[in-house]
Amino acid sequence: MNTFRKRTTSLAFRKAIMTRLSLDHASRTGERGFSLIELMIASFILGIGVLSVTTMIGTSISRNHSSKNDTVAMAAAEQVMEELKTTLFSSLTVGGSTLQSDGRLLFENPSDGSAYATVNGYFRSITLTNSDEAGQSVTYQVRWNIAAAFNDGTNRLLRITIGARRLPSNQRLPPVQLVFTKAE
Predict the structure, then answer these.
(1) Rounded Cα–Cα distance for residues 58 and 69 (Å)
(2) What's the whole-model pTM score?
């Protein structure tokens, strides 16, 4: 029986050594943990994700600035609109700033970008204090055009187009526009 015990002990001992050797071999061949290539690929994917989020934040800030500009420009245009609504119909004269064929007011010449001259009595500069991100004053130019929309001799209807834009002009911040009609 002693011989049997020695054989089973040596068999168990051999199995333990083989298991230990196979684990050491597995760790040396890269079967456990991350390889350098896997780590580089994961870092690359993470970098793309961070870059995408950073780009979205930049776009969001830009859109927020543009939206704020549109809101303030619209408020300046609405201020002029309210004044024109309260003006007597007989005091309103057809004319004003240049309109494109699609009805939009032109602030600049589309071909060369030069500013169109303002028409006396049909424009106003409105300066707002502390309206910029840095707490500085910002000036908006408001222009308008009054056109006859309907005239049958008895009834008259005027179409009034008002546009506003931030000065100095910026192609990234286009002008806003309001249109309303006024009946006699």
Answers:
(1) 17
(2) 0.65
Q: Where do runs of H (alpha helix) occur along the chain?
A: 2-29, 36-86
Q: Both tokens of residue 116?
A: 């169109």
- Tell me, what amino acid is at 32? R
**In angstroms, how far is the first alpha carbon of the chain from the final one?**
125
Q: Record the tokens describing residue 46, joined without a space.
A: 């993470």
* 164 within 8 A of 175, measured Cβ to Cβ: yes
pLDDT digits (tens, 9 = 90+) for 10-54: 666 666 666 665 555 555 555 567 788 999 999 999 999 999 999
H or E element at residue 151: strand 138-151
Any idea which residue has 């500069």 for tokens?
125
Structure tokens at 184: 């006699």
The DSSP letter of residue 108 is B
Domain boundaries defined on the chain: 74-183
**Shortest CA distance to 20 belongs to which of 34, 7, 12?**
12
In this predicted model, what pLDDT tens digit does every residue of 74-104 receive, in sequence order? 888 899 899 988 888 888 888 888 888 888 8
Nearest Cα to Cα of residue 126 among 72, 61, 181: 72
